[in-house]
Amino acid sequence: MRIAYNTNKGIFYNGKVEEALASKKFEQYKGKVNLILTSPPFPLNRKKKYGNLQGQEYIDWLSNLAILFKEYLADNGSIVIELGNSWEPQRPVMSTFSLKALLSFLEKGEYSLCQQFIWNNPAKLPSPAQWVNVERNRVKDAFTYIWWMSKTDFPKADNKKVLMEYSSSMKKLLKTGKYNAGTRPSEHNIGEKSFLKDNEGAIPSNIITAANTQSTTNYQLYCKEHDLEPHPARMPSAIPEFFIKFLTDPEDLILDPFGGSNTTGAIAERLNRKWIAIEPNEDYIKGSVGRFLKEDKLIYR
């Protein structure tokens, strides 16, 4: 394991997560990480360049990481993990390995499951292709689950940091103060002043819609200029931005143990958080430099 580069706020380590978290270099971070935010390799039936285990081997591997992560997580810190869907080989049925891996992870780490989120990707290509495009007996699989968990039932969190703009109808309501109060068919009794307080925005839901459709980002241009292949499974910046704002404060420490193209680190830096990323693939690390072109200090090792 070695340091690939530093920025004003973070460090990108080149190495495997198991080796990194078991090294003496990382002991200084134990109990100090406020958010572990990551997307580990999915349990796909077809091997990918970025590496992925399969079957029970995947479940055992991910659940063992739960114990390692717990050592580094602050008492009021959070873990946010995206686990993708997978399908049984040559069958139009979904695999349950992701769910089994999640349950095993929660059990091994003795974590509380704070909330389940859905990442809806409207630009995702039709898959699984055999059943969606050829046989036409399934629809496009266009979302993945994001699981928020913690050591405690009450980790640091504040939804006021991620408020959304009010809808036009809500803006009108706040302006006029007129709406139909009374009992609804659901038997909820809506008082005359229930919705007249301006909270400076609406509370978001647990569905996040975001796509990776941009083709001219600093990262992509940098990869093209330096003949580097972009990471094939990049997370859109809207995902880490939401959870970093929601679950941390400025100067808190963010860890992405599967750094990839380092979207998490770049967003953490922009939001004035400290960050650590770990990634074994040197090419992905080289490409991630493109996310920090505007930073004052980028120190290569």
List the helices and strands and how they pair.
Layout: E1 2-6, E2 10-14, H1 17-21, E3 33-38, H2 55-72, E4 73-83, H3 97-109, E5 112-120, H4 129-134, E6 143-150, H5 168-176, E7 182-183, E8 189-190, E9 207-209, H6 218-225, H7 238-247, E10 253-256, H8 263-270, E11 274-279, H9 282-288, E12 299-300
Parallel strand pairs: 2-11, 3-4, 3-10, 5-9, 10-11
Antiparallel strand pairs: 1-2, 1-12, 4-6, 5-6, 7-8
Helix pairs in contact: 2-3
Strand numbers in spatial order across the main sheet: 9-5-6-4-3-10-11-2-1-12
Question: Assembly type of the shown chains?
Answer: single chain
User: What's the Cα radius of gyration?
Assistant: 21 Å
What structural class is derived from the secondary structure elements? alpha/beta
User: Given the structure, what is the number of helices?
Assistant: 9
The rough form would be described as globular
Fraction in beta strands: 15-25%
Topology-level CATH name of the largest domain: Rossmann fold
Give the name of the CATH architecture of the largest domain.
3-Layer(aba) Sandwich
Distance between the termini: 12 Å
Low-confidence segments: none
Question: Structurally, how many domains make up the residues?
Answer: 2
Q: Give the full name of the CATH homologous superfamily of the largest domain.
A: Vaccinia Virus protein VP39
